[in-house]
């Protein structure tokens, strides 16, 4: 029997008991649909993160913090004389702070070209030409990072000018007509000093950044502006009080090899510091997304497992019903292998139709959801598509489901192939 | 004449030890090309078991089967399948037609198994349907035919691969006398015109008497007609 005839027969055999076939296909459909959607979301999100990572760019920078054995704390710790700490977030764990001597120690590691404290600035508000006050998060601009500018240029850390980059969504609220109109204009930042007095610092907008996951409500400032703001913030602080930094930005060469990077990280670790690149920091986020997708995929696989029992059941019934026919075909010289193939291909076809329809529905629903999402809650994140489908991943899902179906089909197919033609012909 | 099949000292035992039941006991049969042989016996006599072994659908417990002078036990599964597909044709009392499929598709099933293309299959299918005078029913569903027509379709199917030998198991068992006679005539005509050897299993003495030779079986033993 030709393979094409076997496939055609297997397909037309599926139509003999339509209701049963459809119910089995629905079970597979559900699994395929879920897998397609979860993978679509997974790749949509990680694609966006990769894109953002591309925006960041600076690969020669390490963020160094004090090493904490257990970030969530394992109970009260003994106070060490002279140690400083900061609350990383309200109610959260306390991170030990880095001091000037730590910076010296970090710089002493070979391969590190320089280290600057990561000054923590808490600005009260930002004010523009329309004199409306808006809260803002200030972060230091690190040379080499690519902010994804809509207009203007990147800040210059070597410049004495006070420069700031504002996110796109600050352009209208501060009273600028367009990103281009904002560039070169003055804004002011208000900051409260240690004495409780509010002071302002003027700065020039040098560029406007596209809204992104990493820039919402965040403005990047150059070194001069940062130090200026820090000076205002520290005003009135007792001279004896030591400056402590939550983190230090260490600079390594741009042409550093991954192995060398690893060595520097390990050396810092030995000295009691935790060092991460931007990629590492975002990698954690990716891991969380990955874990969520894995859990969702796990459910989809359970659905497929249940569906595979449906395939076994359906085909066992078909083998029973077609006992005589199997006997006749064997009597007429159809080999065991071909009988096995006839039924296992029937199983694979169940998987094929179920996964094809499931993936198509998954892609359809994913695209609709994407449309709705980009028009609503993802509006502020241009370039973020909730779901992304590649032909390769859809094809992989289909092949996996067909493989599962084939495995499920082997039991009934084996049973069919082992039928004794005489017994089968006698069967009533 | 050349021997088509030969059974030497066939014994078939079902079950083991105390429960053992001897269905066939030291059977010797030789069937020559062009012969018409009737295997006659009551139900339970072992005639169907004998036919199954002769048709290589079953294996004897002891004794041997020769096909065209070759020992059947030395043939591979693939060769056995080939013999059943190309050399033998089967006619069953219960027809074994796929009722929802067309007459033509039913008739061409052995050709599909042997791997012919659809075009070749259909060409040959129409030829054999012409031989049983049912070419006008080629595209009807098998279920829509009468009993006699169905048996003619079964004969056409048995003829499809140009067999040397047709095994017919109670070919007229499910038919009325008049239709039965038509089927008998058809089978004997095929024997005369095409030289196809006929092995007919029956309990109908009239049908048996039309054959060249009758092998009477009782309790698994041949009681008469061993050799002509």
Key attributes of the depicted protein:
heterodimer, A: 428 residues, alpha+beta, eight-stranded mixed β-sheet, four-stranded antiparallel β-sheet, 14 strands, 51% helix, 17% strand, elongated, B: 228 residues, alpha/beta, six-stranded mixed β-sheet, 10 strands
If you had to describe this structure to a student in words, what would you say it looks like?
The complex is a heterodimer of chains A (428) and B (228). Chain A has 428 residues and is α+β, with helices and mostly antiparallel strands. In chain A, 51% of the residues lie in helices and 17% in strands. In chain A, strands 5, 6, 7, 8, 9, 10, 11 and 12 form an eight-stranded mixed beta sheet that branches. In chain A, helix 2 (18-56) packs antiparallel against helix 8. The model of chain A is unreliable at 87-93 (pLDDT under 50). Chain B has helices at residues 47-54, 77-86, 103-107, 109-114, 118-131, 147-159, 177-194, 205-209, and strands at residues 3-14, 21-32, 36-40, 62-67, 70-71, 88-92, 165-169, 197-202, 213-218, 221-224. Chain B has a six-stranded mixed beta sheet with strand order 6-7-8-3-9-10, with helices on both faces. In chain B, strands 2-1-4-5 form a four-stranded antiparallel beta sheet, covered by helices on one side. In chain B, helix 5 packs across helix 6 and helix 6 (147-159) packs parallel to helix 7 (177-194). Chain B starts with a strand and ends with a strand. The interface between A and B is medium-sized, with 19 and 26 residues.
